[in-house]
Amino acid sequence: MSVTAIVGAQWGDEGKGRVVDYLAQQADLVVRYQGGDNAGHTVVNEHGTFRLHLVPSGIFNPRALCLLGTGMVINPARLLEEMEQLAAANVSLDGLAISAGAQMLMPYHVLLDGQEEKARAGSAIGTTGRGIGPAYADRAARNGLRVGDLQHPDYLRCRLELVVPRANRALAAFGLPPLEVDALWATCQAWAQALDPLIVDPLPVLREAVRRDRQILLEGQLGVMRDLDWGIYPYVTSSNPIAGGACAGAGLPPSAIQQVIGVVKAYSTCVGAGPFPVELNDVTGKYLREVGGEYGATTGRPRRCGWLDAVALRRAAWLNGFTGLAITKLDVLDSLPELKICLAYRIEDRQVEELPHTALLEQAVPVYETLPGWQAPTAGVRRWDDLPGAAQAYVTRLSELAGTPVRYVSVGPEREAMIEIGKA
User: Fold this and answer.
1) Which one of 77, 171, 406, 422 is separated from 361 by 20 to 30 angstroms, measured CA to CA?
2) Which one is catalytic: 13, 28, 227, 309?
3) Residues 299, 41: Cα–Cα separation, whole Å
4) Most confident of 11-15, 196-200, 293-297
5) Catalytic site includes residue 41
6) Residue from 21, 28, 41, 53 carrying the catalytic annotation
């Protein structure tokens, strides 16, 4: 048995989708274990370029079962749109399944998300407005609807009659008109007709895969610094992207996970609000954004860019117990004469090497180490030994700082643009 969790080691947008797409070619089961359609995974392969928001990135392996896990919040309308786009590109959806326990993201969640973010004004979190936070809040308050409810129409009707008045009271507080139970019921009936064949109880599926010693990939969304408990709260998502969240979100015991691959971009990027000490508002930051194509896959918002933050990386390595790193977008650094890595923060008159409270992080000034660049193209490289010496030194330094061996280095968005360390 081999169960591998793929986890974002930074603020999200690290390139997890391309890593999952690469590793999924040998996988039997790929499970997306948390999050919703508020962040996208960009995948480039022989089928084209795709920005997946809900469907696991393993969908391009027709032999793999791809499961939208119990820890997710799923907007059925968005899922159906994504499925249509994949089908139009001749990507088979035969292996797609949805956990009956996953939460349904309803139209009122989207409305409330937008209004709540507006109400925060100068303290906005920077949400995508997709309804993720309100949906997870309803789940925690036991006011949510699950995908499996679509298979039980009488039960679903009763649940709608119970939760919609509550949602309408929240909408009324923002001056918005109420939603009708009948209209939502009709929408749910349409969703049920389209999605019923895909809805499964995930535990028998997972147990059978483990017993048969299948290759299982667990796909997370966003990154450690956006984790609800361990990120830069309150500028976080509403679930747990860390490897510990994979067990609950997928439906596996902690002892089942054998490998945790931390995906880290060769520099740092961030979408949304909150402190980001390594942000570069200069020509280098602009270079990273333009050469790296750093625009959000979901919103198109320009990403905030900066040098790699080793404080965040060390935190991620400890919280997840990384057994290996996958470094993406190394090729973006090809033209830079020198590179910097943030080793610590200066806060007032103190130097700190651990992530401080958010209030202090907003004051943090990065303490950098400078390394030489390689100023040579790496996009065509497929072997470790063929990387420029300075590029090897940079990757090795990241490994030292994380205390984790580097397993993969990406030098382009295409599936084949991946160097496996130790592979001849």
Assistant:
1) 406
2) 13
3) 12
4) 196-200
5) yes
6) 41
